[in-house]
Amino acid sequence: MNKSIKAVSRTAVVALVVVVIAVAAVAGIFLTGVFTPEQQKRQIIIGLSLPLTNPVGIHAKYAAEMAVEEINAAGGVVLNGTRYELVLVAEDTNEMDPLIPVDQGVTAFKRLVEVHGAHVIVGGVRTDIVVAQTQLLSQYKIVYLDIESNQRIVEDLVQNDYENYKYYFHFFAGGRNSSAGPYIAAIPSALRNAAQNNPNYPNVTRIALVAENALWTVGLAGRPAGNSTFFKRLQAQGFDLVFAELYPTTQSDFSSYLARIKEKCAGLIILLFSGPPGVAFTKQWAAYDWSPCKKPIIFGPGLLGGFSWFWTQTEGAAQGTIWWPATVKVPVTPKTIPFIEKFTGRFKETPNTAAFDTYDAIYVLKEALERANTWKADRLVAALEQTDYEGVIGRIQFNRKLHGLNLALPNLYWYFGQWQNGELVPVWSPDQPQTVRNLVLP
Amino acid sequence: MITSEAAATVLVYGFITSLVYALFAEGFSLIFGVARMIDAAYGMWYTAAAYMSFALVTVYNIPSLVTFFATIAALFAAGFVYYWAVLRRIKDHIEMIMTTFLIALVIQNLIVLLFTNFPWSTPVVLPGSTLVFGVSVFNQQLAAAIAASTLLILLWLLIYRTKVGLAIRSVAQDLDAAVCVGIRPERTMALVLGLSTALAGLASLLVTPQSTITPVLGWPMLTLAFAIVVLGGLGDYRGTLLAAFVIGYVEIAVQNLVSPLYSGAASLITVLLTLWLRPKGIFGRSVE
């Protein structure tokens, strides 16, 4: 009898434990939301694929948070009459570290979709990583808003293979229709005009090219360095390319480059950089003894050059350098200055271009979601193609075939800014292409 | 045709670069020569010194000179503890490489955690530049060259003209014999580790103010040290010094006369060619 009671009670205990575990497991699954249908949560999840420990990614994330807070506070996104809240999830791609392989960006992308359940991806800085991530778009059927990569490679893919790449939209002005190339080509002429009236200018007709050995510089700098349409045009205009060299992304000592530039007495250095070596180059250029030549002027597309962080990191050695893109404080739209002031007030730093683009990307997305009445990619693509939005960077539309920016003028990417005592002062814009304004010699 | 300006540039920059390389590589060579260890974390001490100096100067506003000595002292202590706590316990070479590699990754990730991936910049101590044989040299580089020369001489004096140096050489030559004459090998090896990490830190503090610092700064330096030490002959002071000059001059010559993109490859080709002709390196023991 006792034995049977013991056996029964043992069975009862085991059964009870199994039931408790099962209930806890099921409850846990539902409480943690693993099986909860996304629609019931009424959230739209935006996945940020960014280098989260670098100024580019940090500012982009700040701006995304600002935009999402504003949108949610104003009622969120309304789809078919139902209010949805925007939610951000982020993965660190670490992509501003040149030694990080492309795989890390791809893994971050996959985690955003598979683990965090992102409905849309916002991010993209390093071109090779963006190219790799966009290979997965048609597989996941997810929209990708590229906020910072400076190449038109994926735009070309959209044009040539629309069905597979239509999910990609390029928010940065580095695409086929928004390239800064024509602007960059105009500045040497403007400087040459200014030099005719000022004997203190260096000989700006003698140009040196120093470019990061990265995918984004292939078009502009050419391979080997200097072998591009851009430089052929400059040469046709009477400019002499006296030095052209690529540098590895791990370069820290530029003495040899500077010595060779000085030997050729170049008066203008076109510096194409996006990573840390740009800071080292600028510090070393400022400290270099250029006699008997005059100190050359530096200008170029340097992603970090237009960041407020650049001024402090170069300890003011950036004085006189000219950069694109530059977040100059110009009211390109009524939203621009309020955005700069709000961002600066909250985060104590001037927003960089990644912040501008991300902020606009979230608002463009919000409008497209409401037009499409869904986050489902195929309908969202069609809605994004209809974008006509006045953002902080200007009036935003997309080219239907390329999904690249068609920016109405004026816009933020018009301006080249020169560092003058800690401020980026606009010195050139294409409305007056033959002149530079308020320029100081370095 | 090489111009006189180009030749002067190669001569001057090659000399400065080689001195800094030599200072860094001598530490790596010491570790191998005395402790017979391959320290894959060696490059991380270079990085750690740069970040410590950055934090002290920029965040805590400590004067540069105090920062310099504090960083070197901290690195010496770290090397000492590193040997006593970790390296002493490992006997197998593969285990050694894996463990030190893991430690390097831990240090790198700690740096990312504390300082993020921002490319920070330490203030230049000696701004401006000076003309040397008609070549503009940053004052910071000039100071680095003078300091590196002095430190290399002091290191030579320490190894070849002091009792401590005698103990170090004894342990390097014959461990058992060293024990027989009353030398404590573990204490000597700990001292060598402290000295080596301090040398890595010194090389870092001399050159990083002119550029930017990132958490991966040490990896190319580790490759460089490895190439120099293999070329010079493992664990040989003179060989390491000479190899540093060979690598330094090859790099700068290729940078100036061919293309900076090929300078790293040129150094490694030099190492391969030398080993093909002299498998033991310039002076030292067999690489095998």
Word description of this protein:
Chain A is an alpha/beta fold. Chain A has two domains: 38-178 and 331-408, 3-Layer(aba) Sandwich (Rossmann fold), CATH 3.40.50; 181-324 and 414-428, Response regulator (Rossmann fold, 3-Layer(aba) Sandwich), CATH 3.40.50.2300. Chain A is 42% helix and 18% strand. Chain A is built from 17 helices and 16 strands. In chain A, strands 8-7-9-10-11-15-16 form a seven-stranded mixed β-sheet, sandwiched between helices. In chain A, helix 13 links the parallel strand 9 (268-272) and strand 10 (297-301). In chain A, helix 4 crosses helix 5 (127-134), helix 9 (181-196) runs parallel beside helix 11 and helix 16 crosses helix 17. Chain A is elongated and about 100 Å long. The model of chain A has no long low-confidence stretch (mean pLDDT 89). In chain B, 73% of the residues lie in helices and 3% in strands. In chain B, helix 1 (4-35) packs antiparallel against helix 8 (185-207) and helix 2 packs antiparallel against helix 3. Chain B has eleven helices and two strands. Chain B is mostly helical and 288 residues long. Chain B has a two-stranded antiparallel ribbon. Chain B has a single domain, classed as ABC transporter involved in vitamin B12 uptake, BtuC (Orthogonal Bundle). The chains are: A alpha/beta (442), B mainly alpha (288). Chain A binds chain B through residues 51, 53-55, 58, 94, 96-97, 99, 213, 245-248, 250-253, 255-260, 262-263, 275-277, 279-280, 283-284, 287-291, 304, 309, 313-315, and chain B through 3, 5-6, 9, 13, 17, 112, 116-121, 123-124, 127-131, 135-141, 207-208, 210-212, 214-217, 219-220, 252, 255-256, 259-261, 264. Chain B: Belongs to the binding-protein-dependent transport system permease family. LivHM subfamily. Chain B: It comes from Caldiarchaeum subterraneum. Chain B: One of its GO terms (cellular component) is plasma membrane. Chain B: It is a multi-pass membrane protein. Chain B: InterPro entries: ABC_transp_permease, BCAA_transport_permease.
